[in-house]
Amino acid sequence: MIQAAPIDAVMRALADPTRRAVFQRVVSTDEITVADLTHGSGVTQGAISQHLKTLKLAGLVAERPEGRKVYYRAEPEGLAPLADWMNHYSVFWKDRFSNLRELLKEIDHD
Amino acid sequence: MIQAAPIDAVMRALADPTRRAVFQRVVSTDEITVADLTHGSGVTQGAISQHLKTLKLAGLVAERPEGRKVYYRAEPEGLAPLADWMNHYSVFWKDRFSNLRELLKEIDHD
DNA sequence: ACATCAAATTAGCATATACTAATGCATTAG
DNA sequence: CTAATGCATTAGTATATGCTAATTTGATGT
After folding, report:
1. A74 to chain B: nearest residue by CA?
2. Helix extents (H) in chain B
3. Which of A9, A61, A69, B88 is the right S-S partner for A55, CB 3.0 to 4.6 Å?
4. How many structural domains is chain B composed of?
5. Residue A74's domain is classified under what CATH number?
6. Partner residue opposite A2 with nearest CB, options B17, B91, B104
7. DSSP tag of A39
């Protein structure tokens, strides 16, 4: 091990395909319960809870307990370390900026 | 395991801090040999070779053998899967676009 | 030819990780 | 109060991973 920065937690959290899939499902919904995430995930509820814990520690998701359910939502700022890291290599992906360019236009018109 | 896409190889390759450090050193130079990468890395030459192999399989570096040395260089397009993945969540990092905005200006003036 | 050097590969080991099954802990329903 | 529900946590296990030390492979130098 060489460092233990936030980028580390983020990259480790997103390295696992199952966990990345969980994150994507959380992102694609406003809020979603553990039970709903478990359905169709291919793993047990316990595994989902473990993945959510990892994502939470990485700052990628947040929870909102309600009764005996717990709703999870994506945490936008959690991706910041990764965005910053990418930014550092941005000269590399100049050619892939078409979408971003469009996005910037949208932001400008907000 | 749920999938085995290129994003998977890239994320796994960049998940390890030591390997990420190797990549950064490769990026920061035009070309660099295994021996040079080994110096100051804190791990053995064998370990560095292993990390380079992983990075190569992920498409993040390329090699140029010359005599008994092998020069490694960064492979820009290897980051494309990660850039695309980030792009998918771009609505999340709207607020972190200042640098990109500057970069786009530079590109526009090329 | 022989020794040396650079890098890749291998075997072995220790740790980390992803998972399941089982259990624990609140909360709600009857 | 008791049972059931939703989620977290734990123990245990199998596999993956990162590392070292040693060896192999290939190229250069003497």
Report:
1. B92
2. 6-15, 17-28, 34-38, 45-57, 80-88, 98-108
3. A61
4. 1
5. 1.10.10.10
6. B17
7. T
- pLDDT digit string (tens) for B45-61? 999 999 999 999 999 99
Residues 6+ apart with CB under 8 A from B88: none
Contact B82 A86 (CB under 8 A): yes
Which residues neighbour B62 within 8 Å (Cβ) at sequence distance 6 or greater? B56, B72, B73, B75
- Angle subtended by helix axes A98-108 and B98-108, to nearest 10: 110
Q: Give the nucleotide nearest to A1 (CA→C1').
A: D18
Tens-place pLDDT, residues A11-65: 999 999 999 999 999 999 999 999 999 999 999 999 999 999 999 999 999 999 9
Nearest CB to A15 within list B11, B87, B107: B11
A30 touches chain B (CB under 8 A): no
B1 falls within a domain: no
Backbone angles phi, psi at A48, to 5 degrees: -60, -45
**B39-98 residue pLDDT tens:** 999 999 999 999 999 999 999 999 999 999 999 999 988 888 888 888 777 666 665 566
